[in-house]
Amino acid sequence: KTSEVRKAILDKIYKRHLQPDEELALRAACPEVDWIMTCAARCPASEGIAGFETGWEPELKAFSRMAWCTILARSKPHRAEEAISLLKSIAEEAQHRERCLEECWEGPYYHPTTSEKYWFCSSAGTSSWQNPFL
């Protein structure tokens, strides 16, 4: 899974598939990018999303932007302050998405027959067997 996430993030940043030697050079120059990609692979939103389709797009975009900021700061130190500012805005956007989730989803409720937990979002009129906060 980590290699799929790495490929998705790097493809999004570079808008093409990196050759193995290019990827190795990037990872050597910016070891933080590996850490960011590992975090992305552990992100619950990436679970079960074949090909990282639209359901994972906000997280893929955020992790890709974080990696890009790291690359920018490492490759152009004179732009490090710009990278820091962009990272702060990425964090604010993620916090906003979390607040929106908290406002939308209610639960857990328990199915009357099976006693399984589920969550409900009244604004979207949908329910989920998976905890939307994870």
Written account of the structure:
The protein is built from 5 helices and 3 strands; from the N terminus they run αααααβββ. Mean pLDDT is 84; it is low at 48-54. The longest helix has 25 residues, at 80-104. Helix content is 59%, strand content 10%. α1 packs across α4, α3 (31-42) packs antiparallel against α4 (57-75) and α4 runs antiparallel to α5. The chain has 134 residues and is mainly alpha-helical. A hairpin with a 6-residue loop joins β1 (105-110) and β2.
Give a nutshell description of this structure:
With 134 residues, this protein is mainly alpha-helical. Helices cover 59% and strands 10% of the residues. It has helices at 2-14, 20-29, 31-42, 57-75, 80-104, and strands spanning 105-110, 117-121, 126-128.
Q: How big a fraction of the residues is strand?
A: 5-15%
Largest sheet: 3 strands, antiparallel
Span between termini: 18 Å
> Compute the gyration radius: what is it?
18 Å
Low-confidence stretches: 48-54
What is the 3D form?
A: elongated
Alpha plus pi helix count: 5
Kindly report the oligomeric state of this protein: single chain
Order of helices and strands: HHHHHEEE
Strand arrangement within the widest β-sheet reads 1-2-3
Estimate the helix proportion, in percent. Answer: 55-70%
Number of strands: 3
> Average pLDDT across residues?
84
Q: What structural category arises from helix and sheet content?
A: mainly alpha
Structural topology:
Layout: H1 2-14, H2 20-29, H3 31-42, H4 57-75, H5 80-104, E1 105-110, E2 117-121, E3 126-128
Antiparallel strand pairs: 1-2, 2-3
Helix pairs in contact: 1-3, 1-4, 2-3, 3-4, 4-5
